[in-house]
Structure formats: C-alpha cells, structure tokens
C-alpha cells in the first residue's frame, strides 16, 4: 500500500545518500532487476530478511569472473560462423588508466548476421606490462586473442588509430586507419596552423583556455550558467573543437553578469563574440559527420569518402569570411588533403559504391577522376569475386577429399542408344565469374533506393537494401556483407576506455587487472544484451544441491 511505497522511496533515498550515488542510479535497469529479484523471492518463499540471502563482495567478484568466462565461451560460439564466412571485422586500441597507470588492449569484433543486422562484442580488455608495449609484444597479445576466439589471422580486417606501435604490430594484417582520429588530426593541424598566421584566432583560443581555467578554479560559476563550460574530450578529441566553444558561446552573456560583481568580466569580454560565433557555426557542420563515423550498430566504412567531400565543401570560401575564418578554411582544405584524404584506401571507395545512394559518385565533381575511380572499383570487385569463387572451389575440393571412396557398381551403366537424338545441353550455360559480376553490376545500377524515410538511419536502410536483394545480386551481396562490416573508425574502443576510466578510480585502485577486465567486458555485454545464459549452470547447481547436504531451505534451493 501507500505506506510500503513511502518506505521504498525512503530506502532509495538512503541508497543515493549513503553510497554517494547519482539520482539517476535509482532508474538503472540493473538496480530495478535486482529489486524485482528480491520481490520474486519474497513472493515464493514468504517474508525473508534480505541479509540472510544477500551475497557479499567476494561472492559477487567470483560471480563476475565466472560470468566473464561464460561470456567468452558464449561469444566464441556465436562469432565462429561469421569468422569463417569472413563477415567479421575488428577494432583494437590501447588504453592507460589514470588511477593505477596500467595498460589495457581493447579488442572488439563486429559482424553482420543472416538478417543483415550489425552486431558488436568486446572480446577482451587485456592488461599487459607497460615495459612490454612494443610492436612485437603487442602482436603477441593480439595473436593470442585471435587464437583464443578462433579468428582467421591475416583475413580479419582491423581498424585502429595511427599509433606507431600498433601500426607496426599489424603490418601483416588487413589494417585500416581510424578515420575519426584522422578527422581529429585534420582539425588539429588546421587549428594550429591558423593560430600561427592569425593573431586574432590565436587570441580567441588563448582567452577561451584562460576562461575555462578560471571557471574551474572558482568552483561556484558553472551552476549559474545556462550551459556548463565544457572540457576537452580526452578519449574522443574530435568532439572538442565544437563542444568547448559552443558552451562558451551559449553562456557568453550570462558570464558577463556572473563575472562583473567579481570584477573579472574582462575574461569574457576579451573573447571576440562574433569570431566565436563564426567558429562555432563552422565547426557545427562537422558534428554530424563525426557522429556518423562513431556508429557501432550500423555500417560506417561507406561514409568515409563522402565525409571527405562533405568536409571539403564546408571549408570552401564564399568571399564574405572575416580574415581568421578565411585562414581557418584554407588550412582546413590543406589538412583535409594531406591528413584525411591520404588515409582513404581503395576499400573505402568500394564501400561507398556499395551504398546505392552513392554508387554514381556524383559528389565527385572531377568527371575524369570519377571515371577512374569507378573503373578501379569495378576492378576491385572482380578480384573479390574471384576470391569468392576460389573459396567455393577450395571448399568443394576439401569436401571431396573427405568423402569415403565410392564402391564400384556391380554392373556397368548401359550406353544410351538415344544420345544422338538428345539436346546437347538441357541447361543454360553458366556465366564465368567476371560475366556474372558484370550482369549483377548492370542490374544493381538500375535498382531504386531511397533514403527519404524518417523512421530509420540511412545506414540501416542500406542493410535492408542488401537483405532484400541478396538473392538477386548473389556475388555483390557477399562482397557487400564482407566490406560493410568493416569499421570506419575505432570509436567503439574509445567508448570502452571512457567506461574503464570510471571503473578504475582512486577508490577502486586495488582492483586487479583481471577484475577490471571482467567488469569492463561484462558491462559491455550487459548493454548489448549479451549477458551469458546461466540456465544450464543453474540446472547443474540445482542438481548438485539436491545431491549434497546444504543449510539452505528447500524453497531457496528451488529458486
């Protein structure tokens, strides 16, 4: 009744206050599931004291270790099919926790299932000693993960950042650059180049930095502002160029009111508001591009090339820019060509072509270059189609080799007396692989595709397109699944590092490296709906409990 609900509300308040939890924590599905489990036990067993059935820290730590091992076995079985079919890719990156200073290697895999839906799973967040962070030892760690999960060495595309050690460790693998990091490098290069040639722009950056430092020291300003003055994003720096300056712009006028009584209004007035507005408006256009490159449940590799052309278009001069913005745009154009465009690979162009909304490459204004790229894409598709055909032949040969020898028939087959009267061929001749692909490409160019739906992400519509046309475009569909599963960035690994930074805090600095890994991985599998199925384990425990003496009541055991 009402009295019980009042006690519940009070208990939730005590949970927040006593454990220094956020108010949002009481809305977490995990806490609600925990409460529901207690209610279910009470409904079946009658009123019980929760302290009699509650597990302590050691038991839960052991449970997490157990679940981690169960999860690894579960995900191993789930991804095997896709690894064999080569419709699985990976991202990997290094992370160092600030509390203890340990290094961890993140390894995440992605796959597209038979229904053309993309999934991802964090396999390991593996710790290794700082002094062993060399290319050789990095590869040894990565290779151990390949072996643990039966992945195909040399045939699993991996997207990483441009770190020298990790690049060197994957020199013999199919490695693609993280284009979100390349975007960040592009902006950083243009940003710093503009500071050098434009004093007005340099002053803006300096004054904004000094203002943020002052606000951080003061400690009583942020709560009075319409938007918190943001910090740089350490794990995803490409976001910082917009969010920091946007937060200052939104709070600009209020900061004058707040700082004036402190006689510190010069800190905000020194910032040229018009230039700040121009910078925010320019950087705002980059935000949706960065967001698209960070998706993990939909393809991203096909937007790498269009992203370059979209950013290049935003950096074009219109003749009305103030000198600082003109310099910034010019430096953006240079950095885009030298930093971003130089990292684009042929596989990115093929992925773009496999999106029917981009297949004509109409965004490429240079017709000669467009024609060259379309020819190169077709040549690449032919090579991939040949690989698929060779794989098919190898599979047939291996299957034949494994078949037991056939017994010789007791009587020979009689000669067909009507052979001369029959058609020489009752089946249509089969096209060779190149002709088959050409026929599919011709058909692909005529198929309609629309991205006008407001109910779905265009990348989801892309997967729906290939699911619908999978049988009609047999070869292209196989290639599309293998290509579109490759990630355009390693942003998913960055998200894991953000979570790891919360888990490994000063208050939890005594947690072992193996415990940290189990917590990071299990958090990800919980969010992705991949929590290990424990029904079989429960059956084993139930059977064991019935065969052994126990202090638990029969009602509790039956749960």
TrEMBL record:
Which Pfam family, giving just one, matches this sequence? Dimer_Tnp_hAT
Q: Where is this region: Disordered?
A: 536-559
- Enumerate the spans annotated as HAT C-terminal dimerisation domain: 454-523
Q: What Gene Ontology terms describe what this protein does at the molecular function level?
A: protein dimerization activity
The cellular component terms of Gene Ontology attached to this UniProt record, alphabetical and capped at eight, are: nucleus
Q: Where is the composition biased (Polar residues)?
A: 544-553
| Entry's Gene Ontology BP terms | regulation of transcription by RNA polymerase II
Which InterPro entries does this one have?
Answer: HATC_C_dom, RNaseH-like_sf, Vacuolar_transposase_reg
Gene3D superfamilies per UniProt: Zinc finger, BED domain-containing (1.10.10.1070)
Q: What is this protein called?
A: HAT C-terminal dimerisation domain-containing protein
Organism, scientific name: Adineta ricciae
């Amino acid at each position: 009744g009402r009295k019980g609900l009042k006690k519940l509300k009070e208990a939730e308040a005590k949970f927040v206050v006593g454990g220094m939890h956020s108010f949002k924590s009481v809305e977490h599905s995990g806490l609600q599931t925990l409460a529901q489990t207690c209610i279910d036990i009470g409904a079946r067993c009658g009123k019980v004291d929760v302290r009699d059935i509650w597990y302590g820290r050691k038991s839960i730590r052991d449970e997490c270790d157990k679940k981690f091992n169960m999860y690894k076995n579960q995900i191993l079985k789930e991804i095997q099919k896709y690894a064999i079919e080569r419709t699985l890719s990976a991202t990997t990156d290094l992370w160092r926790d600030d509390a203890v200073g340990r290094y961890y290697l993140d390894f995440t895999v992605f796959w597209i299932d038979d229904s053309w839906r993309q999934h991802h799973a964090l396999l390991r967040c593996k710790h290794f000693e700082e002094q062993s962070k060399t290319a050789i030892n990095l590869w040894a760690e990565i290779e151990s993960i390949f072996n643990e999960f039966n992945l195909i060495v040399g045939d699993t595309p991996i997207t990483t950042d441009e770190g020298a050690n990790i690049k060197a460790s994957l020199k013999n693998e199919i490695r693609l650059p993280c284009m979100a990091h390349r975007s960040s490098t592009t902006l950083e290069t243009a940003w710093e180049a503009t500071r050098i040639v434009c004093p007005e722009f340099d002053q803006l950056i300096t004054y904004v930095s000094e203002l943020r430092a002052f606000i951080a020291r003061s400690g009583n300003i942020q709560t009075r502002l319409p938007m918190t003055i943001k910090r740089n994003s350490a794990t995803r720096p490409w976001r910082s160029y917009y969010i920091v300056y946007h937060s200052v712009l939104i709070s600009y006028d209020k900061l004058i009111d707040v700082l004036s009584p402190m006689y510190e209004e010069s800190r905000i007035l020194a910032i040229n508001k018009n230039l700040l507005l121009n910078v925010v408006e320019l950087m705002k256009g980059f935000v949706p591009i960065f967001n698209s490159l960070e998706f993990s449940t939909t393809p991203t590799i096909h937007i790498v090339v269009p992203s370059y052309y979209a950013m290049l278009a935003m950096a074009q001069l219109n003749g009305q820019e103030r000198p600082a913005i003109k310099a910034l745009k010019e430096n953006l154009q240079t950095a885009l060509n030298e930093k971003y465009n130089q990292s684009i690979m042929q596989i990115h162009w093929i992925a773009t072509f496999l999106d029917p909304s981009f297949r004509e490459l109409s965004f490429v204004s240079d017709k000669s270059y467009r024609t060259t790229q379309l020819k190169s894409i077709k040549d690449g598709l032919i090579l991939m189609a040949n690989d698929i055909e060779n794989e098919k032949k190898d599979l047939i040969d291996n299957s034949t080799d494994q078949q037991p020898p056939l017994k010789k028939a007791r009587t020979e087959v009689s000669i067909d007396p009507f052979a001369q009267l029959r058609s020489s061929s009752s089946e249509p001749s089969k096209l060779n692989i190149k002709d088959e692909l050409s026929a599919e490409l011709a058909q692909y160019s005529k198929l309609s595709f629309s991205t006008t739906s407001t109910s779905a992400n265009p990348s989801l519509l892309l997967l729906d397109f290939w699911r619908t046309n999978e049988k009609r475009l047999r070869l292209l569909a196989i290639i599309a699944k293998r290509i579109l599963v490759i990630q355009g960035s390693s942003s998913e690994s960055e998200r894991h590092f953000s979570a790891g930074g919360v888990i490994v805090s000063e208050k939890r600095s005594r947690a072992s490296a193996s415990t940290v890994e189990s917590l990071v991985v299990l958090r990800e599998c919980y969010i992705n709906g991949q929590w290990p199925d424990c029904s079989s384990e429960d059956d084993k425990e139930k059977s064991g409990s019935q065969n052994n003496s126990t202090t638990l009541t029969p009602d509790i055991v039956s749960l």
